[in-house]
Amino acid sequence: MTASILSIAEDHFLNQNQLSLNQAEQVLGTAWCQGLDAADVYFQTISSESWVLEDGIVKEGAFHQDQGVGIRSMLGEQTGFAYSEEIALPELMNAAKAARSIVKQGQSRTVSVSSSKISQTPLYPTINPSEQTKPEEIIALLQLLDKTARAEDPLVTQVIASFSSNHQIILIMASDGTLAADSRPLCRLNVSVIVDKKGRRERGSAGGGGRDYPSKLFWDKSGNASDSSIGYAKEAVRQARVGLEAKPAPAGTMKVVLGPGWPGVLLHEAIGHGLEGDFNRRGSSAFSKSMGEMVASSQCSIVDDGTLANRRGSLTIDDEGTPTEKTMLIENGKLVGYMQDKRNARLMGSSSTGNGRRESYAYLPLPRMTNTYMLPGEYQHQEIIESVDKGIYAPNFGGGQVDITSGKFVFSASEAYLIENGKITTPIKGATLIGNGPEVLKYVSMVGNNLELDSGVGICGKEGQSVPVGVGQPTLKIDQLLVGGTES
């Protein structure tokens, strides 16, 4: 942890609110009374900006700022939590007493914190994206994307281009002595289009982003729109055009090839959530009793990695002040790890993996994914396609549903094609993939050597909280998967 980030956070939350570090420690000591296992205090400020351009007209321009403090007291499986939107000593002491009273009555104790435990190198710049770009520059970029999409195809009838950014400063104090801070930028650019051909309308969308300067993500060194930004508009149109030509999807059990990159969202939902510590501690995950066992094909190795520089799901430290890690979850088919926050790790007799995350100060931290992806295998992409006589190739996914306890999932493919005699042929529409996460992994017979991560658009929901995440995978072949379609 660089001293500058910690000093910025202390100045923002403490000095500017006439609080001393000693007073903040008193708040923590009040939440951590005699007999409690642990307590923490989480300061956060969030500033955000968003712009939406619809058919060349600015439909939305918004700025928002919020800040507050969340205080947590823990005893066994019990948790007391309270938060304050006002950063002042009386309000913080009241919140600390409220959190403590939920789990135990007791006498406050003295606690001191230190930043010496945290030496993590920042994974992203500490800038506020809103201070690095001007509204007129953003609007000009969105207008260019609108024009680019319309120039791609005269069938385009609607274009919605959007830009969003936010910046967080956090300060964390915990009863284990943790004193940590982080400054987190996040940006996203998105393009959605509708094409219309003789009354048949199809939609396509694309976008990307990450934790970096907007100028690096969306503009080139000359100040012009980057190739990747222009590419989002073209990709959105391409996807919509494919939809116009798509035929009804077949139904039945068949071989399915998932493309690299974004299709990793299926792994995130169908497998990743089941490997989060809280579900396994409560025994509600399909993987709860499988540690050390083969739960997938020996070709499958899956990790959660919060340490990738500038990635959307990355964090220098998690929301409990723990440095993030590259955590091996499944290694050569064997279940070897869970994603843990401090609370669940303590209750399960293990250590935090830096996966304690929360939407804001008003929510409790939970074990959550960061960037979850499958490691590359040995096969070429084309080699995998050529191995399939009859099946489906799915390079893009839409929404889906998963039951954590059973592992059952249903996912819709937003872009898919038939594979016939080893070749990708007709685009199809309405394909849904239906299966059981742990079982599907056992039918993976080929894993490509072309690992890709998504472009930076992932959002994960859990218990009413949304956080940014990343997904990824190489091309992979599943020998047996139920496909729901419109043809039998």
End-to-end span in angstroms?
58 Å
State the CATH class of the largest domain: Alpha Beta
By CATH, the architecture of the largest domain is named: 2-Layer Sandwich
Number of domains: 2
In helices, the fraction of residues equals 10-25%
- Rounded mean pLDDT score: 94
As residue ranges, the low-confidence spans are: none
The oligomeric status of these chains comes to single chain
**CATH H-level superfamily of the largest domain:** PmbA/TldD superfamily
**Strand-pairing-aware structural class:** alpha+beta
Percent of sequence in beta strands: 35-45%
Main β sheet profile:
7 strands, mixed
Q: Count the strands?
A: 23
Topology:
Layout: H1 3-13, H2 21-31, E1 38-54, E2 57-75, E3 78-84, H3 89-103, H4 135-152, E4 156-174, E5 179-197, E6 200-210, H5 214-218, H6 227-245, E7 247-248, E8 252-258, H7 264-272, H8 277-281, E9 302-305, E10 326-331, E11 334-335, H9 342-348, E12 356-357, E13 366-367, E14 371-374, H10 381-386, E15 390-402, E16 408-420, E17 423-429, E18 432-436, H11 437-442, E19 444-447, E20 452-453, E21 458-462, E22 465-473, E23 476-484
Parallel strand pairs: 7-17, 8-15, 14-22
Antiparallel strand pairs: 1-2, 1-4, 2-3, 4-5, 5-6, 8-23, 9-10, 9-14, 10-11, 12-13, 15-16, 16-17, 16-18, 18-23, 19-23, 20-22, 21-22
Helix pairs in contact: 2-3, 4-6
